[in-house]
Structures are given as structure tokens and as C-alpha cells.
Amino acid sequence: MNMSTLSLRFCTLLLAGGLTLAAVPSQAHAQNLPTQRLAFYTTMGDFLVEMFSDTPIANDNMLTYVNSARQDGNVFHRSVNVFTAGVDVIQGGAFFWDDQTRWNAQPTDAPINDDSEATHSNVFGTIAMAENAAGYTNQWFINMGDNSVLDGDFTVFGNVTEGITVAQNIFAQPTVNLGALFTDLPFEDGKNSPPDLVATVDELIVVDVVVALGDADFSNVLNSADIDATYAQVGVNRGAENILFDTDRDGGITDQQDIDTLVRDIFHTEYGDTNLDGKVNPTDLADLTLNWLGTGKTWAEGDFNGDGLVNPTDLADLTLNWLFDNGAAPQTPPATVPEPASLALLALGGLALIRRR
Ligand SMILES: [Ca+2]
Ligand SMILES: [Ca+2]
Ligand SMILES: [Ca+2]
Ligand SMILES: [Ca+2]
Is 354 helix (H, G, I), strand (E, B) or coil? Predict the structure, then answer.
């Protein structure tokens, strides 16, 4: 059976069973999936934080601020070293600068408890919750040396697993004393003029955005739009610090392997799962069916290979992963049982089509 024959057969089946398929409710195409990795994009480069699995309170707290964009645009407001403060630390998460309103504090939620504070040591390259007057809220610091003297006082919740040289470079910048909360404010060397005042945000070291790894469209939710955004980068080489689009870390080039990594390692699902609920089932087939032979379609609409078309190649992906289930707790009511016509179609597709990967 060639492709056009299959297409014809599929259309025939659609005519027979499409109305039933169309009646299957489509789930929202946005799942806020758990992640343990956060990408920090700063004005001096990017780094990746992997959160520990045994610090759920601190992790959830961090994700709450990340997913509400309250970790975006904040400055590194404190940089101290062992000679002046007894510890080597760069700190941020709480304050942003606006050229009109000047210093602003990010809104915070109620303080959290700390968890497993003595489990992880404040060694070089770790990240910990910082405490302000209210307790643990949105501030964090990166240990730029062995700060084990702090152990027991702060929850160390992760490691900088990539881009530690970026953090080291930030740590190496000069600081000025602006008093109050900014007695050790780092500037990117050469950009501060005059050195003891802030005139524009360009003089500060800013964390432009923090996102969960995989959130390639910076929407603060992991969803199928991230796959589309990554497909849009295929063939582009964004360099070694390409955290979001080079998910397999092969040197900055975005290709199909990165899409595979995104789908499998980050979203923990397979091709065909249009709604990213961890299952390939009739709901996903309904999405593909509704967009069959359409153009300009998205991953959520059944275009699994990112070419904009929903056609037999995409059906093959769905077919080969049919009834895949990653075991995650269901987020919606159970899907309906596939109708006979759909099963016949899937069987045909599985036999006739060769997977592209
Ligand atoms: Ca997203
Ligand atoms: Ca790559
Ligand atoms: Ca699904
Ligand atoms: Ca396609």
C-alpha cells in the first residue's frame, strides 16, 4: 500500500467514523508537567540548574515563582566573597530595576518552610534558598566556593549542572556599595558609569528569564507549543549555551534529535501524544483526525514531524506508539475506547508505514 492509497483509505474511514471521532473531547493542550531542571538566561550568559529530588518544598516554591514570571528580570543584587563576608556567594531572585521607577521588589508569597536543610552541603556550584526578613520566599544564592559553614541554615536545593563558568564570570565582576539592600551590588565591568549610581538597567547583571527546561516558547508552561518552537529552530546553530533548543547538547545545533529528547526526556511521552498527557490514545487520534491533510498545523494538531502537514507520516508516529502510557496519573477522565474503524486504520498504518526515525 502506498501513501496515497493509505490516504484515500483513511479519508474513507474518516467519512465512516469521523463524526464519532470528532465527538471525542479534546483536552487542553497545556500540561504543567513536573520538571527538575531550570534554565537561567542572564545578560552575561546562560546556566542550567538541576534541582534535587529530596527538596520538594524548595523546588515547588521555586517553580511557583518561575511559572508566574516572578524570577524574570531580577538582578544579581549581591555578590560577596570569603574575604569580605566569609562566604563566596552570588544572590538574586528578589529585585528588579525599572529605569523610571528604579528599584522594585518582586511580589512574594507567604514564606515557606525549609526542607532537608542539612542534607546537602553548600559546596561550590550548588544553589540554595536565601532568607530575607520574612523567611524563605523568592531569593536564592549560588555557592561560588565551599560555603559549608552555612550548612544547616539554608536549604540547598540544586546544582548548577551547566554553565558554571557563567556564574563564575558574574562572581568575578566588581561590586559597589549603594547602601541599604545593595551594599555589594555587582556590575558588569566597564558598563557602570558613573560607578556608584545606577542609571539604566543595562548597567546591572540581570536574570532575563528563568524557565523550566523545555519551555522553548517562554510561556511558563510546558506545552506542545514548545515542540513547535523547537522545530522552528531546526538547522539553527545558537552556540554552546543553547540550552532550550539543543536539548541533546551536541554543540548548539538544533535537529530532530533535540525534538526527540524534548518529547521523551523532558515531556516523558511519545510521538502521537497530542495533548501531552503521557498517553497515546483515541483522544490524540481524534486530534490528528480532525486535522487530517491540513496544512499549517501544530504538534497539538497532529503534525508530529514539524513540517506543517498532517499526513500519513504523522499517522505512522501515532500508530507505532498506539496505547503508549507513561504511567502518570490521569489528568482528565479516562479516554473512550477506540471505535473499530480507528483500530483497523491503525493496524493498516502500522503495517504500511515505515517510521522515519
Ligand atoms: Ca511553553
Ligand atoms: Ca542538538
Ligand atoms: Ca494523549
Ligand atoms: Ca507532518
Answer: coil
